[in-house]
Design brief:
Layout (H helix, E strand, L loop, with lengths): L1 H12 L11 E6 L10 E8 L5 E9 L4 H5 L7 E4 L2 E12 L3 E6 L3 E6 L13 E4 L5 E3 L17 E3 L2 H18 L3 E7 H24 L7 H24 L21
Parallel strand pairs: 1-11, 9-10
Antiparallel strand pairs: 1-2, 2-3, 3-10, 4-7, 5-6, 5-11, 7-8
Helix pairs in contact: 4-5
Length: 265
């Protein structure tokens, strides 16, 4: 079940799970694809409706900036890309760019800036900074489904479909009426998991190479033991993360939606 897998991911990362009735868990899933300008991510929204029952929604979205802002960043340091993490109570309902209702940033979040000024998403360049950047959660076009991101996002989390976003706002309004205008947004980056796994594999190969060459015979045994235990933990983490981070959206407890949109940051 998608819900159980998502709960496992949140627990694994040490993120909070909200379980009061109609209290929203809003989780962005950044896909492994690095192809720019596509709505190829998802925003999952789930909440408890009774002691044993949850409602679960999946909306198509983007968590990346569009190629327009990648090539022409608003800031000289580059275009903002939200870093994965859980941003507790960092959002509230308000006007996006003063135009229409959305979830807007109210507390600091952490970003990485892509300063290459090309159309390729780069998660290794730039420095991480934390602050107020207008990383909002909003829609793309006013009506219908938007095909490409383009100017619709300079770092925001954007719904692809306008009707999906309207439904999302209805859920937010219910949450606000019960718990106030405070929302938590979590972002899980499957690309970061893949990069981490690649580093772990490289570390494992390096250790194996040392073993094959017999170099370990000259190394302090306690240090070798520590290294091997660390590599074992690495690979255990890979297996656990891979199993947990593959939610199957077709098993949602409610019909999946579609949506996307990002805001200039």
């Amino acid at each position: 079940m998608v819900l159980q897998k998502m709960k496992a991911i949140l627990r694994h990362k040490g993120y909070r799970l909200f379980s009061r009735p109609f209290e929203l868990n809003i989780v962005g899933l950044r896909s492994k694809s690095t192809i720019p300008n596509r709505f190829d991510d998802e925003i999952h929204v789930f909440y408890k409706v009774s002691t044993l029952n949850w409602h679960y929604h999946v909306f198509r979205a983007t968590t990346d900036p569009g190629t327009f802002w990648l090539r022409q960043p608003m800031q000289p340091q580059g275009t903002a890309i939200l870093q994965q993490g859980q941003f507790l109570n960092a959002y509230g309902m308000g006007l996006h760019q003063g135009k229409y209702l959305a979830l807007v940033q109210t507390k600091p979040v952490t970003i990485i800036r892509d300063y290459d000024r090309d159309a390729i998403l780069d998660f290794n360049n730039g420095n991480k900074t934390t602050g107020y950047y207008g990383i909002n959660v909003h829609r793309a076009n006013r009506t219908g489904t938007t095909k490409t991101i383009d100017k619709n996002s300079a770092g925001c989390q954007v719904f692809e479909n306008a009707d999906d976003f309207a439904h999302f706002l209805e859920l937010c309004s219910k949450h606000r009426s019960l718990y106030g205008n405070v929302f938590t947004y979590s972002l899980i980056d499957f690309r970061a998991v893949r990069r981490q796994n690649a580093r772990y594999v490289a570390a494992g190969i390096g250790i194996a190479g040392l073993l094959g060459l017999g170099i370990l015979a000259t190394v302090n045994k306690e240090k070798v033991k520590s290294i091997m235990e660390e590599v074992g933990d690495f690979f255990s983490d890979i297996i656990q993360t891979k199993n947990e981070n593959e939610p199957q959206t077709n098993n949602s407890s409610t019909p999946s939606g579609q949506g996307r949109e990002l805001l200039p940051a």
